[in-house]
Every structure is written in C-alpha cells, then in structure tokens.
C-alpha cells in the first residue's frame, strides 16, 4: 500500500503576482525543508510543480508524521522579512488560555 501526500501553498497565485522573486526564494526554501524531512520519515518525492509537492510513503503513519514535522519546520523557519510583509504571510500570535475542569 502507498500513501500519497500532496502539499500546496495557500494563496500562492496572489503571492506570485505580488512578488515573483520573493516567491521563487520562498518555494526553494519550502522544498528544501520538505525534502530534508522525507528521508527521515521514509518518504519519496514523486514530483514538484510550482508551489506543490507530491510525496509517497509506504506507511500512512510515516506520511502523517512527515506532514506534522513539515508544518512545524515551516513554522519555525526564519522567512525573509519581505515575505512576511504580505497579509497572507504576516506573523500571527496565538494566546492559549488554560482550561480547568473542576468537580465538586
């Protein structure tokens, strides 16, 4: 059995139109990050097309683990300041509030 994963950068068409040079750099970084995780998680790159990558895995758990690791790596990556100027890529701050369930 083979598990397929297809990635896609949301809003990429607008980002390409906004600044093609920045997107060229961003997609290169994106692909390098994803490729770097494929070997670790037993995946194989099938193809890339623009901002999309298709990868195959022998095990569905490996595919999901790779996808989660990819998300974490992409979030942690130091993206160029110019890219972060676009509203689609602007940094977001999340605030978590602790929830407490009490039984009396």
Structure report:
The protein is an alpha+beta fold. It has a single domain, classed as Nucleotide cyclase, GGDEF domain (Alpha-Beta Plaits). It has four helices and three strands. Strands 1-3-2 form a three-stranded antiparallel beta sheet, covered by helices on one side. The mean pLDDT is 92.
Give a quick summary of the entry.
By secondary structure, this protein is α+β, with helices and mostly antiparallel strands. The chain is built from four helices and three strands; from the N terminus they run βααββαα.
Strand order of the largest sheet: 1-3-2
What is the CATH top level name? Alpha Beta
> CATH topology, what is it called?
Alpha-Beta Plaits
Rg from Cα? 17 Å
Q: Give the total of beta strands.
A: 3
How does CATH name the architecture? 2-Layer Sandwich
Strand content: 15-25%
Please give the count of helices. Answer: 4
> What is the assigned CATH homologous superfamily?
Nucleotide cyclase, GGDEF domain
Query: What string, H for helix and E for strand, traces the elements in order?
Result: EHHEEHH
* Morphology: flat
Distance between the termini: 50 Å
Main beta sheet: 3 strands, antiparallel
What's the multimeric state? single chain
Low-confidence sequence ranges: none
What is the helix fraction of residues, given as a range? 40-55%
Q: What's the number of structural domains?
A: 1
Average pLDDT taken over every residue: 92
Strand-pairing-aware structural class: alpha+beta
């Amino acid at each position: 059995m083979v598990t397929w994963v297809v990635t896609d950068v949301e809003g990429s068409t607008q980002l390409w139109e906004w600044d093609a040079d920045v997107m060229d750099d961003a997609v290169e970084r994106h692909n390098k990050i994803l490729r770097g995780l494929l070997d670790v998680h037993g995946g194989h790159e099938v193809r890339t097309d623009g901002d999309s990558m298709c990868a195959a895995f022998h095990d569905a758990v490996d595919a999901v683990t790779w996808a989660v690791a990819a998300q974490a790596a992409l979030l942690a990556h130091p993206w160029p300041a110019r890219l972060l100027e676009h509203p689609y890529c602007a940094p977001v701050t999340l605030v978590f509030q602790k929830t407490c369930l009490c039984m009396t």
